[in-house]
Amino acid sequence: MKKNIIVLGGGFGGLRAALSLAHDLKSARLLDRYAVTLVDRHECHVYTPLLYEIAIPPSQPSRAISEDRVELRFKRILAKTPVQFLQGEVAALDLARGDIHLAHGEELPCDYLVLAPGSETNYFGIPGLEKNSLSLKTFADAKKIQTTIAELFSKNPAARILVGGGGPTGVEVAGEIRFNYPRAKVTIVEAMPTLLTGFSPRFLAPVVKRLRQLGVEIVANEAITSVAKNKAVTKTKREVPFDLLIWTGGVKAPDFLKTLPLKIEPHGRMEVAAAMLCLPQSPDLKIAPMVYAVGDSVCVYDPQTGKPMPGVAPAAIEQGEVVAENIFEDILHAEGMKQKRRRAAYKIKEHPYILSVGGRWTVAKIGPVVMTGFLAWLFERAIEIDYRLSIGA
């Protein structure tokens, strides 16, 4: 029987791990002994950097992007690869035995497991927030916001939009709304002293300038503490009225990870070794499959600051490549094709970061260089094309 390599989650890291592993196994002529299966609850891989463009419909329909730039079907991506795709919801994980139980009843034994479940919206227990807001985490979320905004502005072009959270997604959403609907009143409320916490001041300055030019109101250092219908209240008792609240203020690891016998940091993410191997709760705990993890649900600490690194797509992709390399080394060693295993380690580095703030006005930081405007937008487009080519989409 073939040995099974199961990848749970088809985001940036999980998909890259599956594709790289299948390529390596094919090159080594080991596909008759090992099978790679990608499991995801959805039928499509989502290119999340463009979700905000689906969520905010342009005032001119001819400028709308096609949905197939954002939703990429797994079966199409994997059609010419040895990776098997299985759509399903995980009901239970038995890491001691190496079994995965899916909600529709199927049981998957695995010899190697890659956990890449992504993240979920974090409402931080704020009363009324989840009930009275829309989040932007999935393609379905984006479509719901799209429909709501279209209906809202058709009735009231001067509608009040409150964006909760001044991270990258919040900035993109606020800029895009104000660019397309200039009569709208758009406010960003951010709990930290500035928008884009952790980003370079040289990157932040043009972003803030652009938002103010568009007419976006920025309320910083004000955490939302409660939400009722059409009204948010901050920590200083300030009341912010709204017709629509879009919550982009945080994410968290899926709750089911806490039920696994793995080492979890205080915020619920899995702690991993440099090779992206999951760590057991106690040294004497035996875990049947080799368990790796990548992406948003993983906590990787910056060796210089000691702080956990934020989850971004380029990092997840690199982690997927590291995991694929290490599993392949394990397999070569097990097959007697290599005497010594060489462990690849994930190394933290600064990636280029890019942000669109209304239309095609974009700011990009590549190393020490910061560029803005249409040239930065072209760079963003080139990255998208390169990514699609890398996964065969």
Low-confidence stretches: none
- Taken from the alpha-carbon principal axes, the silhouette is globular
Q: What is the CATH class designation of the largest domain?
A: Alpha Beta
Assign the CATH superfamily of the largest domain.
FAD/NAD(P)-binding domain
User: And the CATH topology of the largest domain?
Assistant: FAD/NAD(P)-binding domain
CATH architecture of the largest domain: 3-Layer(bba) Sandwich
**Mean pLDDT across all amino acids:** 93
List the strand order in the largest sheet: 5-2-1-9-21
> Which percent range describes the beta-strand content?
15-25%
Structural class: alpha/beta
- Classify the helix fraction into a percent range: 25-40%
**How many E-type strands?**
25
**Distance between termini?**
31 Å
Q: Helix segment count?
A: 8
Total separate domains: 2
Radius of gyration: 22 Å
